[in-house]
Amino acid sequence: MLAYTYVGKGNFELRDKDKPVLQDSRDAIVKVTLSSICTSDLHIKHGSVPKAVPGITVGHEMVGIVESVGADVKTVKPGDRVTVNVETYCGECFFCKKGFVNNCTDKNGGWALGCRIDGGQAEYVRVPYADQGLNKIPENVSDIQALFVGDILATGFWAARISDITPEDTVLIIGAGPTGICTLLCAKLKAPKRIIVCESDAYRKEFIKSHYPDVLVTPPDNVFNFVMENSDHGGADVVLEVAGTKETFRMAWECARPNAVVTIVALYDEAQILPLPDMYGKNLTFKTGGVDGCDCREILSLISCGRIDTTPLVTHTFCLSDVEKAYELFESRRDNVIKVALVNS
Ligand SMILES: [Zn+2]
Ligand SMILES: [Zn+2]
User: In this predicted model, what pLDDT tens digit does every residue of 109-167 receive, in sequence order?
Assistant: First the structure.
């Protein structure tokens, strides 16, 4: 089968590999129908994910059809259409029982698929702990509607959940990339008084304005004044930082009102500084990533009843055999790309 493979720093290759087989009674094999490319894949390509194992198949955003299951898999069966969770978790350890599945103590716990074990930019993928890693897609939800459930949408949902957003709040979301937009969609479910999105890219600003006309949009150079003018208590009540630069990290706490929640969803390339003397007395609560991806069933039901729709994010579609072209486009951000879908024919 075709499998897009991490060969070494700077180098991915479409290779012919054996179809995966069940290795454990809790595994499932899924025939991938659609997958996508995530910025984290690019981080692997650039060698900035030390845990990534050369030789593995990349890709951790996909949907498919269950091909076979191990004897102990209870929740899915061959033929089921499923989402695949980016995170592998046992469901039984201390962290899993508390819902902190990103810190599952299993050796493959956390982000393993497409990083430490073979992922889904391929024709088939083996999913460990299938009862936790797979969710059945409701009949009225298409593959394309479900494509982001296991990764960026799970991240947006988790970020909105831990940020304790209330109907009185002004919420500031920094960054309108794919994860920023998913965070926006999930923040909207909490029906806050206002949502402000900070974004520099002209197309992405326009995308937000046209799809979500009730959301306020500001460029980064004026964000502080804009937030002060459009909030009730001297800053945002909740800030979600989804951009991941030194400037946006600073922006996140500067634009927060005293006693605000600042949730850091972004992944940074380098350490950030918390200037505690400057922040003294502001009494902020910081919450940090990555995603505890255990809400996929709830997310699927929200898609099913029309409350979340990520299909406008899919701006381009390629066949898996053209994965190189898809990466080139996604990486260069050409042609106003937001997300690409890779189709297995
Ligand atoms: Zn991802
Ligand atoms: Zn666990």
Answer: 999 999 999 999 999 999 999 999 999 999 999 999 999 999 999 999 999 999 999 99
Q: Tell me the whole-structure pTM to 2 decimals.
A: 0.96
Cβ density class 226-240: b for 16+ within 10 Å, e for less: bbeeebeeebbbbbb
How many structural domains compose the chain?
Answer: 2
Residue 253 alpha carbon to ligand 1 centre in Å:
25
User: CA-to-CA distance for 176 and 220, rounded, in angstroms?
Assistant: 12
Q: What is the 94 CA–ligand 2 centroid distance (Å)?
A: 7
Q: In this structure, are 278 and 325 located in the same domain?
A: no
Residues 181 and 146 in one domain: no
* Distance of CA 109 from the midpoint of ligand 2 (Å): 7
Helices marked H in 172-255 — which ranges? 178-188, 202-211, 223-229, 246-254
Query: Is 98 in the same domain as 188?
Result: no
For residue 151, the CA-to-ligand 1 centroid distance in Å is: 5
Asked if residue 174 lies in contact with residue 227, where contact means CB atoms within 8 angstroms, the answer is no
Residues 283 and 214 both lie in one domain? yes
96, 7: one domain: yes
Distance 111 CA to ligand 2 centre (A): 12
Q: Which two tokens stand for residue 10?
A: 């700077």
Asked whether residue 284 falls in the same domain as residue 317, the answer is: no
Cα separation, 301 vs 246, whole angstroms: 37
Q: Are residues 159 and 270 in the same domain?
A: yes
